[in-house]
Design brief:
Cytochrome Bc1 Complex, Chain C; 222 residues; mainly alpha; 0% strand
Length: 222
């Protein structure tokens, strides 16, 4: 590994870049070895690890999932019962989705109660709100993909809730459904949003979030 790193470093000059990203001191108030309450500052990192886990398991699920009304349910059933470790991977993806929402919510609570959203970190707080909205979007769009009765009617209720938004509700519901009711276009749109649009959106705002965190440093308690 040392030879590989030296080979790449000689040609790409990686050391300054790695040092700029990784070589910075950890404040005492977020060091769990010096401050027992520092574990609350780990919620953001745990959230990111869960997101990575969701991406990896989702990639494997996409190898077998078929986003069409005729085959979606059967493909999920095949993953669950026939694919080697398919039940485990799908279980991790399903439980990890709920865990991600919970950890992001706890992370935002920590940011709020420690005053970390205040000057000069207002923009990072806004980026965090956008990321939380995207995480909720993953949960909403992914819920339909098994294409069973529970998923279908839960999505129908969710789309009706979107339709109740003043001024833009009808337009928003029409865009989500792809027509007058939940059907084939709804499934294809939710799949595209879940695996293409939201991941691209998430990567952009995670990069912005981490960039501002690196520039501004970790906040201190009030």
């Amino acid at each position: 590994m040392g030879r590989i790193y030296r080979f790449l470093d000689e040609r790409l000059n990686l050391s300054p870049l790695i040092g700029a990203v990784a070589d910075h001191p950890i404040p005492d108030h977020v060091n769990v070895f010096k401050s027992p309450s520092a574990f609350v500052y780990c919620f953001g990192g745990v959230s990111f690890l869960l997101i990575v886990l969701e991406v990896l398991t989702g990639m494997f699920l996409m190898l077998y999932y078929v986003p069409s009304p005729d085959h979606a349910y059967q493909s999920v059933n095949y993953i669950q019962n026939e694919v080697l470790f398919g039940n485990l991977v799908r279980g991790i993806h399903r439980v990890g989705a709920s865990a991600t929402v919970l950890m992001v919510f706890l992370h935002m609570l920590r940011v709020y109660f420690t005053g970390s959203y205040k000057n000069p970190r207002e923009l990072n707080w806004i980026a965090g709100l956008v990321l939380f909205t995207a995480i909720m979007g993953f949960g909403f769009t992914g819920y339909l993909l098994p294409w069973d009765q529970k998923a279908y009617w839960a999505t129908a209720v969710g789309v009706n809730v979107a339709a109740s938004v003043p001024l833009v509700g009808d337009f928003l519901a029409s865009v989500l459904r792809g027509g007058s009711e939940v059907g084939t276009l709804t499934l294809s749109r939710f799949f595209a949003i879940h695996v293409m649009f939201l991941p691209a959106f998430l990567i952009i705002f995670l990069a912005v979030h981490f960039f501002m965190l690196r520039r501004q440093g970790i906040s201190r308690p009030l």
